[in-house]
Design brief:
The chain has helices at residues 2-17, 107-140, 171-206, and strands spanning 26-31, 36-41, 44-49, 55-61, 65-66, 73-80, 86-88, 93-97, 100-102, 143-152, 158-167, 211-213, 218-224, 234-241, 244-254. It contains 3 helices and 15 strands. Helix 1 (2-17) packs antiparallel against helix 3 (171-206) and helix 2 (107-140) runs antiparallel to helix 3.
Length: 256
């Protein structure tokens, strides 16, 4: 168990290092089942469920404390205790909370998130350029301010006056607006591309890896969950192999 779970720990840790930190954290506290034991690999808790006849499973908790804007990172090892090979895929793992289901992210899911980051950045940059063009057009047009009023003299008489003041177009201001808009758009696109690059680099590390497990063999995979629902207080991860289901349960609570 030690060697395979330690290798998994390194892979998952690389994925976590690529994510960004934020403010309010959540905490995962494992609830051990009657047939489960707790071990540690390099200080990380591992819940072991290895007392069933045809399969075994172990779940590594990469970080018991995490930002709710991040994707919870776990590691999973499953063992085939039969004399036949068995396929193991994302459909074999189900994550749920008391506030709704939780997605299991595959490599393809994370790659799609990378493409979406670029698309969002490009849309934002387009609107920035449109806004700058409209503002620049306004600055490039000559402006005319009209005025009117009445004046009274000391004898009670009055006179009406009116006029207009024209301001020529300001090409320098228009050019500055366009340049600023272009800079903001380029910055938005660069940020989106950087986010996409981080996601793409982490996809292989963090995405679920399907496997065909040899007789009496094992497989390990990163297990990255989607965002937990905001009101979740209980997380369950059910792993099914050879008709046997291993259920791992966690309390979810905010860190005070």
């Amino acid at each position: 168990m030690g060697t395979s779970m330690r290798a998994l720990l390194i892979g998952v840790a690389l994925g976590v290092a690529a994510t960004s930190a934020a403010a309010k954290d959540l905490h995962l506290a494992a609830h051990l089942g009657p047939d489960q034991t707790l071990a540690y690999v390099e200080g990380k808790p591992v819940i072991q469920s290895e007392k069933m006849a045809h399969s075994g499973a172990a779940l590594l908790i990469q970080s018991e404390r995490f930002d709710p804007k991040q994707y919870p990172a776990l590691g999973l090892r499953v063992t085939n205790l039969t004399d036949l090979p068995v396929n193991f895929g994302p459909e074999s793992v189900v994550a749920t909370t008391d506030a709704g289901p939780v997605e299991i992210l595959t490599e393809g899911d994370i790659e799609a998130m990378a493409r979406d980051a670029v698309a969002r950045a490009n849309r934002a940059a387009t609107w920035m350029r449109i806004g700058a063009a409209l503002s620049a057009a306004g600055a490039s047009m000559p402006r005319t301010t009209t005025f009117s009023g009445s004046a009274f003299n000391s004898y009670g008489g009055s006179s009406f006056y009116s006029g207009a003041i024209s301001t020529p177009s300001n090409g320098a201001e228009s050019g500055a607006i366009l340049a600023n808009g272009a800079a903001q758009a380029e910055a938005a696109q660069a940020k989106g591309q950087a986010e996409a690059a981080q996601l793409s680099a982490a996809a292989e590390e963090r995405g679920f890896r399907p496997a065909t497990i040899a007789p009496h063999g094992e497989a390990t995979t990163a297990l990255t969950l989607g965002h937990l629902p905001k009101k979740a207080t209980l997380l369950k991860v059910a792993v099914t192999l050879n008709g046997e289901t291993h259920v791992f349960e966690f309390a979810v609570s905010p860190v005070s």
